[in-house]
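Example complex used in Figure S2.
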Amino acid sequence: DTGVSQNPRHKITKRGQNVTFRCDPISEHNRLYWYRQTLGQGPEFLTYFQNEAQLEKSRLLSDRFSAERPKGSFSTLEIQRTEQGDSAMYLCASSFMRGGNLVTEAFFGQGTRLTVV
Amino acid sequence: QKEVEQDPGPLSVPEGAIVSLNCTYSNSAFQYFMWYRQYSRKGPELLMYTYSSGNKEDGRFTAQVDKSSKYISLFIRDSQPSDSATYLCAMILNTNAGKSTFGDGTTLTVKP
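Predicted assembly (229 residues):
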């Protein structure tokens, strides 16, 4: 296993277009997280999944954003009607939880850098 | 005011120096504290992970947590040019919590 994989690495889109990002977590990890990071800032939490269930969403995740993890493996993050303010690095992380206890710490992917023009 | 505050730097030190990086936080309920290293245009990489107050050492890195002061530190001994990166502190409430709350990072440059 080579770690958390995110695709694409870079995406340039025109304002108003829809974009979708994919995250493939470490294979045995049951938790998957999405964060957003802008220049000079730390990652900001967007949402996370335990297996296929989406357990928490940040208020940052407006109704233009939707995330899925249909089979508890890979996840997608879709942004509809993109705005220039959506330009950021979108980071995915995964971890393994057992019995409510974190067995392994969150491992991050390399991110998808979105530029909305 | 942010829950986690971190001096953005930039911090520049000569090779071999001891580096001290710090974060303060306002939520006393945080239980787990992490330090990540992030190279430019890359994802964060976990360096250290500590629970509650105390020290933890791993090679050239030492993490300290002082819950009474709501203050955490990362010390890097014998700093190397390869340590040049942005260092992010992060915290979670408990192991069942979903999200980490991050500081905005301190940019470190180690000059040869």
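Chain A has no helices and eleven strands. Chain A touches chain B at residues 4, 6, 31, 33, 40-45, 48, 50, 55-56, 58, 91, 93, 97, 100-102, 105-111, 113 (CB under 8 Å).
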